[in-house]
């Protein structure tokens, strides 16, 4: 419909709203409660997996410092990269047995921002997400406590 309007020389009307994933008010507006199943908390610059966000409150409230949590996430992410590199090498070796001329591209380095993107949230970012998420769930937590 928008293309037809542009073809006729009229300006296309803007969409009725703008979806910004980092705005927590946008997610409930998704059809069929897809916002409740969104796998991350997004900010303007980055995102954090919902599994990590779910761990923030019990870990930080239990005494784990954000800097320690950031180092722990770096350790886990590095191990995942190592496992992926080993699996890639094994798969390449298997294919070379079947096809001797097979040449596989090497797995990208951990710090390659274009492919593997071995970025880990820093302590200040973890604190900011923790505060934002806690503020959003505070009414629900207050309703649960007698």
Structural account:
The chain is mostly helical. Helix content is 50%, strand content 4%. The protein contains four helices and two strands. β1 and β2 form a beta hairpin. α3 crosses α4. It is extended. The termini are far apart.
Entry keywords:
mainly alpha; 146 residues; disordered N terminus; 4 helices; two-stranded antiparallel ribbon
Q: How are the SSEs placed, and which strands pair?
A:
Elements: H1 2-7, E1 40-42, E2 47-49, H2 50-61, H3 66-98, H4 123-144
Antiparallel strand pairs: 1-2
Helix pairs in contact: 3-4
Order of helical and strand elements = HEEHHH
- Percent in helix: 40-55%
Helix-and-strand structural type = mainly alpha
Strand order of the largest sheet: 1-2
Largest sheet: 2 strands, antiparallel
Q: β content, as a range?
A: under 5%
Mean pLDDT: 82
Shape category? extended
Q: How many domain units? A: 2
Report low-confidence residues grouped into runs of 5 or more. Answer: 1-7
Number of helices: 4
Q: Nearest-angstrom radius of gyration?
A: 22 Å
**Number of strand elements:** 2
The N- and C-terminal alpha carbons lie at a distance of 53 Å
């Amino acid at each position: 419909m928008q293309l037809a309007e542009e073809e006729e020389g009229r300006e296309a009307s803007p969409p009725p709203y703008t979806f910004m994933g980092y705005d927590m008010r946008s997610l409930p507006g998704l059809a069929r409660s897809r916002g409740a199943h969104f796998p991350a908390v997004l900010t303007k610059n980055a995102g954090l997996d919902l599994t990590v966000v779910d761990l923030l409150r019990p870990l930080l409230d239990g005494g784990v410092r954000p800097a320690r949590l950031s180092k722990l996430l770096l350790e886990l992410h590095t191990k995942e990269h190592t496992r992926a590199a080993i699996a890639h090498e094994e798969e390449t070796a298997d294919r070379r047995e079947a096809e001797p001329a097979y040449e596989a591209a090497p797995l990208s380095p951990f710090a390659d921002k274009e492919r593997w993107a071995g970025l880990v949230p820093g302590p200040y970012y973890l604190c900011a997400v923790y505060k934002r998420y806690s503020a959003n769930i505070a009414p629900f937590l207050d309703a649960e406590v007698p």
